[in-house]
Amino acid sequence: MEDLKIDENTDHYILTLKDYEQGLRAGKMLGLRCRNCGEIMCPPMPVCCGCGGKELEKTEMGGEGELMAFTITRVPPEGMDAPYIVCLVKLSEGPWVMGRLDHDPEKITPEMLGRKVKVSGAYAWSDKFSAGEHTCPVFKVIP
Amino acid sequence: MRDVAIIGVGHTKFGKWETKTAVELFAEAALQAMEDAGVEGKEIEALFVGSALPDFGEGQAMINVHCTSELGLGQIPSTRFEGACASSTVAIRDAHMWVASGEFDVVLVGGTERVLPMGTPLATRTFAMAMHAVSEVPAGLTFPGVFALVAMLYSKTYGIPLEKLREKMAHVSVQNHRHGALNPLAQFYRKYGDLKVEDVLGSRMVCDPLTLLDCCPFSDGAAALVLCAAEKARKYTDTPVYILGTGQGTGGAMGRFGEELIRPPSRVMSARMALKKSGLEPKDIQILELHDCFTPAEIIALEGMGFFEWGKAADAVEDGQVDIGGKIPTNMSGGLIGKGHPIGATGASQVCMIVEQMRGNAPKGNQVDPVPETGMTDTMGGSFGTLSHIVLGRSRR
Question: pLDDT for B169-193, tens place per residue?
């Protein structure tokens, strides 16, 4: 049987989702910079989310940011174990990303809002619906 | 484009339906709507069905086909609309356009859903499919989680301490349960009518800071409407309600919203579109049914639609400004929190509830007096992914 797997670059993606997730697993926060308006974005897209421009270049971000919101999830979806903390982080370079927060769910308080956080790892997850594994960043509060 | 009228409405009770399928629930609501309008099946020219997750709820994809067949409507064009929780609002918007365009004179539109057969873990998983599957689902984000993040960001942005905000949010639940308890079609009819703020705050934590009573329930149910070209509406009814304007807006992954997450541009654009088409402003609207899937959702919806300034709706809710006698009576049906949220049926249900208000048929304690001349619905699918609004009036523009 002929192998039908396609593994080649397409015309419009400078950075693919696969590249981005591989970066996360290697401890790197990859993104794109728009040469037209300067917007920095991640996860990756084929066009700029600010101006729609197509002149994009890869960039590596520092992985530091501000904790804008978090929630302790106590009722999980099928296939996950609770409690765990989901967080929304504004990276120093601009983009907002969703991730997990590496912190004791029973010891976190709203006073943590606004604290500086840094990428400390990646969380990979899959189930029967997800068409393979996908990855989000894990953040830790900078002491 | 022609004016379009709603000439009939139908609505099953919302709750746990173990004895009927989503197709049967739709057919029940549709037949009620057709009888209400005095329309025969052979007069229906097309069917538009909103349903978000029938594939998972009952293993039924392409549910529109089976709804059409169940109703004996023959081979008329039939389409399913999927916009998560806004599915039937976008179905109504499209149905309206097809009648306005002159292609059809009489069409049937509505929504149906059975969520409870999935159980909480699978329902939580499948609802999350409306988020960005590859970046938000691995983080473990759930829908209560989306609005927990919204509450946090609202607190941070407007400088309202989280414990204060939780009290203001609790008023949304108290008010909507009070009206839901009076609505015989509501999941919580005769339940939680005397809920107190402390009950909401002390309820089991789901996604901090949201407790169970900050959340709408999982529900089964259906709602349907018959739409007709306005020029022919009087042939069927003395109390047509006109669709004055509709709007729709689109979002993306939550991270892309940034600080706008509490002022979603998808909602702002859709609401403005609907109001502009109707030639009205928020001050002209006399009743709202809006998407209170969680208590903070009602607060940011009131602001995003232009009824209160940014950061002010939490206080307004606490002051009774969205109850009868206030600035803008909101969710007199009980909303999603009190009435229930069979997701694909919700948008059609919201429109049905405003039609009943305009006919003076809402339950005692929920009916706005004098009957509202104008009204507006707000329905949100996903995490601000699909927003849609419908402006209704007792008179043509």
Answer: 999 999 999 999 999 999 999 999 9
Cβ B343 vs Cβ B379: under 8 Å: no
- The strand pair at A64-73 and A84-91 is best described as antiparallel
- Are B397 and B248 in contact by the 8 Å Cβ rule? The answer is no
Per the residue annotation, which of B96, B179, B291, B341 is the catalytic one? B341
Is the CB of residue B205 less than 8 Å away from at least one CB of chain A?
Answer: yes
Q: Residue B9 forms beta bridges with which residues?
A: B225
Nearest CA in chain A to B207: A73
**Residues B67, B85, B207, B293: which is the catalytic one?**
B85
Catalytic annotation present for B177: no
Side chain identity at residue A117, one-letter code: V
CA end-to-end distance (rounded Å), chain B:
13
pTM of the model: 0.98
Contact A76 B134 (CB under 8 A): no
3-state secondary structure of B35: helix
Query: Is A110–B254 a contact, with Cβ atoms under 8 angstroms apart?
Result: no
Q: How does DSSP assign A68-80, residue by residue?
A: EEEEEE-SPPTT-
* pLDDT tens column, B143-173: 999 999 999 999 999 999 999 999 999 999 9
Tokens of B296: 């903070």
Domain B4-119+218-233, what fold? Peroxisomal Thiolase; Chain A, domain 1 (3.40.47)
Using only C-alpha atoms, chain B has a radius of gyration, in whole angstroms, of 19
Q: Please state the domain extents for chain A.
A: 17-141
ipTM of the complex model: 0.96
Nearest Cβ partner of A98 from B208, B252, B255? B255
Beta strand residue intervals within chain B, DSSP E: 4-11, 47-50, 78-81, 106-114, 205-207, 210-211, 220-229, 241-250, 288-289, 374-381, 386-393
Nearest Cβ partner for A134 among B138, B162, B255: B138
